[in-house]
Specification:
The chain is α+β, with helices and mostly antiparallel strands. Helices cover 37% and strands 26% of the residues. It has four helices and five strands; from the N terminus they run E-H-H-E-E-H-H-E-E. Strand 4 and strand 5 form a beta hairpin. The longest helix is centred in the middle third of the chain and has 11 residues.
């Protein structure tokens, strides 16, 4: 199984602040950006979010890992022009 996007990316200061406030570690980003469901937001960004389908893909690859429970519902918004992570949050 391959990543849907490159593993290298820039993280904006805003995203770093939001991650810290929301208890989302930078270790989650490769999983969210690599395996998250992708949708365009219509404003120059792409949302990558960890839904049940994304978690199942990772479980097939990694087996049961406690981290997967923590990242369900996490999403990241990436700027289409420069591949920078703009913000990170939990989807409710």
């Amino acid at each position: 199984m391959s990543y849907s996007r490159p593993v290298q990316y820039k993280v904006s200061n805003h995203a770093k602040t939001r991650m810290q406030q929301r208890g989302i570690t930078q270790d989650y980003l490769p999983l969210v950006l690599g395996y998250g469901q992708k949708e365009y937001d219509g404003r120059g960004g792409i949302r990558y979010f960890m839904n049940k389908r994304s978690i199942k893909k990772l479980e097939k690859l990694l087996g049961p890992v406690p981290l997967l429970d923590k990242i369900q519902g996490v999403y990241a918004v990436v700027n289409v022009e420069n591949d920078a992570v703009l913000t990170v949050s939990h989807r409710h």
